[in-house]
């Protein structure tokens, strides 16, 4: 991705670490995220996993400012995201793609991705209504950049097609293109491979690596596909019931007894496995699952417990 | 993204070449016809046209709010009143003992009225920024009744319900709209331009400005923000859009459009007076709902649709008496089949048909008919 058209050239982005420290999120009496701490190092691919209801999406929402944290601190470099109005977080270099597609179905792909440039562009009703020349020049420059990004994601041929009519996988890519249009230093992807088959998942894995390699940005992603997670993540943070149970490189996390217990249930010490009664949850896969998405166990889509089902859709 | 330059250069135009040529030609033809109409049409038909344009300006504002940003307003009638009263006060004669006036030039009065309506809309931000869709619609309804009460409580400003006050006719650089045809010194192709012709051109100019401003905003950054807020507030926020500000802003813009339509209403009726009942009149709930009907009939969010919808909803009740040769005094008299009643039936039926068969209104119908031509290159 050669971004000569904009000020922020790839590789030279000022990528700063994202520090989540002792963060707690409460919904009424329910503690969705309980004193969770982890750090996304600059330029790393960081996975956030856990069974359904573990608090992954709540964590995502807290970082992108959509839900308020009850205590703790989230910082990007030295900026406190918890004290930043949610709509200003994008301008700080946080781009986010959604789990459930959050595109405007009737707007074109171009319009959808161009929305990602909102914080980078200016002009209000009168300026655009009067077609101010400087705004039109800027809009053309940004349109070129949007075309570049769409090309990078392989959706350039749909540029003038309404997003709602595209196949699911392509809509996912448009969503990621929109997150990249923010020119992020931290790219957040919520289940990028959800609903994809093995070859699409492999393409997505390659895409995420390309984004990191070519732009040098950090990637934080939530994913249930353990093949994808273990295959590309530099570091994996595991949540269970809102608590952090593991935070390490994939090979260590895969063998951590707490993680295996969280996904398969714990032995109560009397030879009877007390399986947690909760829908979903894919085993990290100490055997066989690594690198082959097709054989990785997938979580159930239904029966998602609170608060994880309070997805980004609000 | 190694071959990015190719990608940027290859940006495929969405429309075929012939479609674009056809569009430009169509627009040119439309402009010529609209400019030439006053030379051929009699005055009473020109008044039908200017009334349609009044509706079009208001409908444009409402379609930005409701169609583009997904926010509902039933307060359009109220902002029409704010615009009309503001103009009457700003440009009204300064020494009048009964009515307050500032004696400002009509242009200043016009701009001031639009600005004041916009500010009144902006003042509603604590409500319009927080509520969504139908909830805002219900909350905004309160404004109509506030306007109704204020209009009656302040006759020195809004004019009394019995006699009303006269809105200053528009004039600029000594060129007045209010000149009778016999005394007109201005003529085009031997046709003298009287009151109705001049009003036509003034309204045409105002409508064109309103349309072009809306068009520029819809296709640019503000329009994208509106649609993002309409389709998904969370996604809009995460992508850097301040949802509260966008919602309050588009409400204010829509109010300013209604204010302009209000000034046009006052000129058209020739008198500024508040409504005598909550349900009927120029600034009440019925008018607010008529504007909603326009944008639904035309297709939510579509600018040409809003204009067509206005032509239908505001045009029919004034055009029907001319067609049936009945006395125009019948309008609003409430007798069995007055043009108003017929129009209400007509657009009521139309709304039902449209929601059943073509939910995107006349704009959707147009797209369906012209779609094949558009796709062809």
Spell out the blueprint of helices and strands.
The complex is a heterodimer of chains A (314) and B (377).
Chain A: E1 18-27, E2 30-40, E3 45-49, H1 56-63, E4 71-76, E5 79-80, E6 94-97, H2 109-114, H3 125-129, H4 133-152, H5 168-181, E7 186-190, H6 198-215, E8 218-222, H7 226-232, E9 235-240, E10 243-248, H8 250-255, H9 257-264, E11 266-267, E12 273-274
Parallel strand pairs in A: 3-8, 3-9, 6-7, 7-8
Antiparallel strand pairs in A: 1-2, 1-4, 4-5, 9-10, 11-12
Helix pairs in contact in A: 4-5
Chain B: H1 4-9, H2 17-40, H3 43-68, H4 76-91, H5 106-123, H6 125-128, H7 133-153, H8 155-158, E1 171-172, E2 175-176, E3 187-188, E4 191-192, H9 195-219, H10 221-231, H11 233-238, H12 243-269, H13 285-298, H14 303-324, H15 339-357, H16 361-375
Helix pairs in contact in B: 2-9, 3-9, 3-12, 3-13, 3-14, 4-5, 4-7, 4-12, 5-12, 10-12, 13-14, 13-16, 14-15
């Amino acid at each position: 991705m050669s971004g000569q058209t904009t000020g922020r050239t790839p590789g030279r982005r000022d990528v700063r670490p994202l520090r989540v420290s002792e963060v707690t999120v409460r919904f009424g009496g329910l503690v969705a995220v309980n004193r969770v701490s982890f750090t996304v190092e600059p330029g790393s691919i960081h996975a956030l996993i856990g069974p359904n209801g573990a608090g992954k999406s709540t964590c995502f929402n807290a970082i992108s400012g959509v839900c308020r944290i009850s205590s703790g601190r989230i910082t990007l470099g030295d900026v406190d995201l918890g004290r930043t109005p949610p709509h200003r977080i994008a301008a700080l270099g946080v781009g986010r793609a959604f789990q459930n597609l959050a595109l405007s179905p009737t707007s074109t792909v171009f319009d959808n991705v161009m929305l990602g440039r909102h914080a980078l562009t200016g002009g209000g009703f009168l300026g655009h209504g009067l077609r101010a020349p400087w705004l039109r020049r800027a809009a053309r420059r940004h349109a070129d950049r949007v075309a570049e990004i769409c090309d990078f994601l392989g959706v350039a041929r749909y540029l003038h097609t309404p997003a709602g009519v595209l196949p699911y996988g392509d809509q996912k890519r448009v969503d990621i293109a929109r997150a990249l249009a923010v020119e992020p230093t931290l790219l957040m992807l919520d289940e990028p491979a959800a609903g994809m088959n093995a070859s699409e998942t492999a393409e997505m894995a390659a895409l995420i690596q390309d984004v990191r390699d070519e732009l040098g940005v950090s990637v934080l992603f939530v994913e249930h596909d353990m093949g994808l997670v273990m295959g590309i993540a530099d570091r994996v943070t595991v949540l269970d019931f809102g608590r952090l149970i593991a935070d390490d490189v994939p090979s260590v996390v895969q063998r951590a007894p707490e993680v295996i217990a969280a996904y398969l249930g714990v032995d109560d010490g009397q030879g009877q496995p007390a399986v947690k009664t909760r829908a979903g949850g894919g085993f990290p896969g100490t055997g066989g699952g690594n690198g082959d998405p097709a054989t990785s166990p997938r979580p159930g889509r239904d029966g998602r417990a609170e608060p994880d089902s309070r997805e980004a859709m609000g | 993204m190694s071959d990015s330059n190719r990608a940027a250069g290859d940006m495929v135009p969405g429309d075929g070449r012939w479609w674009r040529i056809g569009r430009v030609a169509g627009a040119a033809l439309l402009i010529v016809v609209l400019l030439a109409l006053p030379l051929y049409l009699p005055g009473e038909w020109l008044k039908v046209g200017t009334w349609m344009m009044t509706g079009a300006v208001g409908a444009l504002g409402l379609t930005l709010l409701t169609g583009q940003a997904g926010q509902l307003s039933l307060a359009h009638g109220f902002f029409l009143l704010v615009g009309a009263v503001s103009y009457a006060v700003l440009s009204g004669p300064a020494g009048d003992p009964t009515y307050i006036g500032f004696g400002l030039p009509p242009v200043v009065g016009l701009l001031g009225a639009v600005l004041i309506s916009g500010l009144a809309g902006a003042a509603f931000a604590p409500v319009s920024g927080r509520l969504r869709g139908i909830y805002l619609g219900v909350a905004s309804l309160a404004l109509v009744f506030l306007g109704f009460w204020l209009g009656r409580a302040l006759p020195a400003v809004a004019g009394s319900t019995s006699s009303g006050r006269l809105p200053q006719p528009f004039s600029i650089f000594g060129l007045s709209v209010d000149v009778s045809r016999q005394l007109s010194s201005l003529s085009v192709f031997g046709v003298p331009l009287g009151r109705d012709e001049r009003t036509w051109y003034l309204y045409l100019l105002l409508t064109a400005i309103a349309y072009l401003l809306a068009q520029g905003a819809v296709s640019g950054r503000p329009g994208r923000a509106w649609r993002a807020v309409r389709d998904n507030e969370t996604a809009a926020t995460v992508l850097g859009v301040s949802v509260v500000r966008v919602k309050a802003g588009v409400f204010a813009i829509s109010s300013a459009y209604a204010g302009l339509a209000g000034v046009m209403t006052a000129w058209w009726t020739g008198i500024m007076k508040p409504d005598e009942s909550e349900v009927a009149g120029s600034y009440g709930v019925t008018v607010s709902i008529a504007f909603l009907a326009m944008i639904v009939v035309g297709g939510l969010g579509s600018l040409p649709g809003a204009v067509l919808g206005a032509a239908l909803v505001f045009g029919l009740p004034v055009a029907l008496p001319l067609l049936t040769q009945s006395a125009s005094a019948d309008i609003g008299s409430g007798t069995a089949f007055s043009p108003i009643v017929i129009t209400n039936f007509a657009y009521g039926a139309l709304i039902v048909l449209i929601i059943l068969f073509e939910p995107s209104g006349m704009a959707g119908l147009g797209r369906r008919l012209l779609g094949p031509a558009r796709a062809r290159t």
